[in-house]
Queue: 3 jobs
Job 1
Amino acid sequence: NAGVTQTPKFRVLKTGQSMTLLCAQDMNHEYMYWYRQDPGMGLRLIHYSVGEGTTAKGEVPDGYNVSRLKKQNFLLGLESAAPSQTSVYFCASSHRDRGAGANVLTFGAGSRLTVL
Amino acid sequence: AQSVTQPDIHITVSEGASLELRCNYSYGATPYLFWYVQSPGQGLQLLLKYFSGDTLVQGIKGFEAEFKRSQSSFNLRKPSVHWSDAAEYFCAVNGGSNYKLTFGKGTLLTVNP
């Protein structure tokens, strides 16, 4: 079981460049999330999706865009990277239904992004 | 709005000692509560969760946590810490009306030999 796979694992960008982080899950989860992790800040939700074709803003959405064209994939885009977006990005997914499977997130291994 | 506070940024314990990591939450009703662990360079792994019922929940790796409604707390405990427990621990809350978790800022655990 691959679970949640993030690509790339590392990336260095120059200010103003654009890039896309890809998240793929093979658990047939309905919900997918993008978080960023910064020292002393914990994890903060950027965007999330409750199903194919739908996305919503989280706590810190500015400067990011997302798309969920297929149920198993959730893309995070940076149109014009800024040094403040230097962070570790985590994708996660979860089931939709209530019960033991609800609310339990499965995380990817993270993508470390540096913006110079 | 739901929120989580982890009062301890960094805790150091000796191997074999007991451990308690504190977590306080803010939410109007009974929330769903979680503890996740993150080893260096890794993603987050679920340790345990509380949805309802018995307020003492058991998790993986010998961890347990107790939900105390009167104190709005969900502290994580382990009777005897192993060197491999060194990691960062995150408490998280979900109010149940949506599927978004709110995380605390984490507690870094260092284990001395």
Job 2
Amino acid sequence: QVQLVESGGGLVKPGGSLRLSCAASGFTFSDYYMSWIRQAPRKGLEWVSYISHTGGTIYYADSVKGRFTISRDNAKNSLYLQMNSLRAEDTAVYYCARDLHGSSGYGDNWGQGTLVTVSS
Amino acid sequence: EIVLTQSPATLSLSPGERATLSCRASQSVRSYLAWYQQKPGQAPRLLIYDTSNRATDIPARFSGSGSGTDFTLTISSLEPEDFAVYYCQQRSNWPYTFGQGTKLEI
């Protein structure tokens, strides 16, 4: 079955960096667009970044543009999010999500999430 | 950015009752709207996509309707496991956005 497992979250000081990883299994990773979606504590959902199956198309939310970089390694069935210049408002649970099909823009399978806390 | 406004914020109902949740978009999203269910401590779960298509393994008591700017998620007869937070999401324009959620409580 489809499994997405995020890792790399933790406590970091403002201005610091973290790299999140998402290990995928149970499907042909290279066939699917993937996303990072976050949820601040007791808040709603924000679509952070989106990458095509080849990595040739990438989108970022304005709130993270220039600070975050999404990437993927299809040989390793892995998705990444490099987060630099972190701010308190980046504190959230970060989910990786698989696209429903093609470039549908809907997340049909999600990981359990990894918590990023930005605090001094 | 397309803003999605969900109503009501909280809906109090009993098992067996019918639930009607609304989502209004600040501009047309055509039919590119989804609904998700989230329970405490869990990731969201896709219920409905493209306004009215049920995702895999979603029970038939969940249905979606609407077009343009006004959309509805209906749960025909509430089961105990349906009490959760529901989000709508549009994929018409980037950035894809979510509504603020409707909490369905007993």
Job 3
Amino acid sequence: EDQVTQSPEALRLQEGESSSLNCSYTVSGLRGLFWYRQDPGKGPEFLFTLYSAGEEKEKERLKATLTKKESFLHITAPKPEDSATYLCAVAYSGAGSYQLTFGKGTKLSVIP
Amino acid sequence: DGGITQSPKYLFRKEGQNVTLSCEQNLNHDAMYWYRQDPGQGLRLIYYSQIVNDFQKGDIAEGYSVSREKKESFPLTVTSAQKNPTAFYLCASSTTLSSYYGYTFGSGTRLTVV
């Protein structure tokens, strides 16, 4: 059973069409939930860290929220340059202290 | 600027050949990691190191080897025992408080068997 599940696997949006990506997790003792953006052929780029339920963080058109079992990455009025794969990862007390466990990602395509 | 440098960007391996992927960081991070990324599989941990001269196997260590002789460097060798090495390889580093700060990633090496 996957510990971190992202949905949907792929999402196509028209430019300006807001939506949300989901990251659900089954681990206990969450220490942090991380969102990364990855462009094709490149390494993931850090976006946000969330530490406790109820926490929210924003950056430009992106807003990340966290509950006890899932996180959402809300994209408001997306632009074509927001097209990328978005990765979610968790750090939790059951794993090695320095390890992150990743979901498989959501590939976002924003059509002009 | 501080960061992680992976080289080469593209690498081709012949059957039965060992190849080494380079990873260097100047962030003064203690921990370093190697991940393999395949389409639809997400990132899978190969090896990680929390301190110089020490490293641990991840989930898919078979057919790979690493060394950590310097804090800045964590090279990965893909041996001939790895039967399906074609993939995108990512190196990352973190402070030992990654629970709070997460990872910094390199730009990746794409390995192809020819």
